[in-house]
């Protein structure tokens, strides 16, 4: 792994669906996860109480409509911090129950099987 703004973050074949992997402790702790074929990269430390959110789990959140019918929203996976169960939207980094609590996210992509993370920028619309 490099220590510049773009780091090499491992091989996509080493990732297990829904299980984040901390890939860059030397640049402040960055985790990557794959969910439904899409890569996500985020700060591995929970902004709530510095818990190890990079050791959490990814899932689709439960949502309900005004009639009280519950379902899941496949379009916006969340990572759950194992300490206090705080959930963060992996697309935006916003806390599910407290949008002011934000988990930093990063632009991530793969070339062949290698994962790259741009540690200097948040993901853009193209990412």
UniProtKB/TrEMBL annotation:
Its cofactor is [2Fe-2S] cluster. The keyword Iron-sulfur applies. InterPro entries: Rieske_2Fe-2S (IPR017941), Rieske_2Fe-2S_sf (IPR036922). Pfam families: Rieske. The keyword Nuclease does not apply. Keywords: 2Fe-2S, Iron, Iron-sulfur, Metal-binding. Residues 7-117 form the Rieske domain. PANTHER family: FERREDOXIN-RELATED, RIESKE DOMAIN-CONTAINING PROTEIN. Belongs to the bacterial ring-hydroxylating dioxygenase ferredoxin component family. This is Rieske domain-containing protein.
């Amino acid at each position: 792994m490099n220590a510049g703004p773009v780091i090499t973050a491992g091989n996509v074949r080493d990732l297990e669906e829904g299980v984040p992997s901390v890939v860059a402790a030397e640049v402040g702790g960055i985790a990557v996860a794959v969910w439904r074929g899409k890569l996500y990269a985020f700060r591995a430390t929970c902004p709530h109480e510095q818990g190890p959110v990079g050791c959490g789990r990814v899932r689709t959140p439960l949502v309900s409509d005004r009639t009280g019918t519950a379902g899941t929203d496949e379009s916006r996976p969340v990572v759950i911090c194992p300490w206090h169960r705080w959930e963060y939207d992996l697309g935006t980094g916003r806390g599910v129950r407290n949008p002011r609590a934000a988990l930093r996210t990063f632009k991530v992509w793969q070339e062949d099987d290698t994962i790259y993370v741009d540690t200097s920028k948040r993901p853009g619309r193209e990412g």
